[in-house]
Write a sequence for this structure.
């Protein structure tokens, strides 16, 4: 894993076999990002878990086979809220809330660090989710 | 709905049940954004309408069931030109030009305000579309 | 094709029938972008080729019919590494590594120019790929 910063932009390259969230958490910690936006993420993911929120709970599904990571967008607010789309060998696309994943070949991730806007999450008693709070 | 700005970045949180375009239009108005880029949009949408331009007209389809909003990209030039991808409970992804939608649970939207580049739309007589003009 | 810059942001409009990569290469050259990020890309593509890396080689497929360009993310490091998602007339989404494409109707592309971070690609003997190097 390697990353560099320029102004409020972080460009990171994750390597094959790395745990996606472990790597991202390390970057966020080392770059001192308490609030941020995931602007872009491409490469491949394998053994990843995607979720769909059915109004009460997340319905989760694990995909073992590597897929092309087609897009990634999300927010960093202490914890991560990341959605992504992935394509299989027939170019069919699957997507949802990313719960976990392992880097396949390489991941190129771009993060925007927020310095003034403060993002937090607080548990919503009704849904059990932790929706974003912007301060 | 809540939003904050930092430099030329706007981070917005839309709440369950809000009309997506009404909320975005209010943000754009209050932030005085005449030209901008939608960098990111995640969460859920319900009762949304997607379109495919067949060369002559938009073929539109309404999806009533909530889906995970997997990605959103687009431009703001007086009017909006927004494309998005959404995933159902089986992680299958649908996408196209977003004509309308209602926020499900939450939407996290990030907008880049352009100050120097001026984006406009002018009707093209051949296609009936209003393609982007950059000045 | 037309483009304008503001700070480190380039907003481009590609026109119907243009070769996608020829246009992007011209923009990158004229804007003197040796390292950059493709933040957004919407519109339509036709006669495009998508790839899936199976661990040894890219499995490629050509799609002739125009599809809505739903998302585009990637890096510029001398060469391009671009992933995108596209939707057909039934809103089904296909995606992967973009090898080639022709602009349908219009493409709106947003690029972030990196000035300090240097992106390069060097051939990996094991995979035959040219993974990103960040300096």
């Amino acid at each position: 894993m390697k990353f560099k910063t320029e102004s409020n932009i972080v460009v990171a390259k994750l390597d094959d076999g790395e745990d996606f969230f472990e790597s991202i958490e390390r970057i966020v910690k080392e770059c001192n990002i308490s609030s941020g936006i995931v602007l872009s993420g491409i490469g491949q993911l394998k053994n990843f878990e995607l979720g769909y929120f059915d109004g009460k709970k997340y319905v989760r599904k694990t995909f073992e086979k590597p897929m092309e990571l087609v897009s990634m967008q999300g927010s960093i607010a202490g914890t991560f809220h990341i959605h992504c789309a992935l394509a299989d060998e027939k170019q069919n696309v699957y997507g949802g809330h990313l719960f976990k994943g392992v880097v396949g070949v390489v991941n190129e991730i771009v993060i925007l660090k927020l310095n003034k806007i403060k993002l937090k999450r607080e548990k919503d008693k009704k849904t059990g989710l932790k929706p974003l709070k912007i301060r």
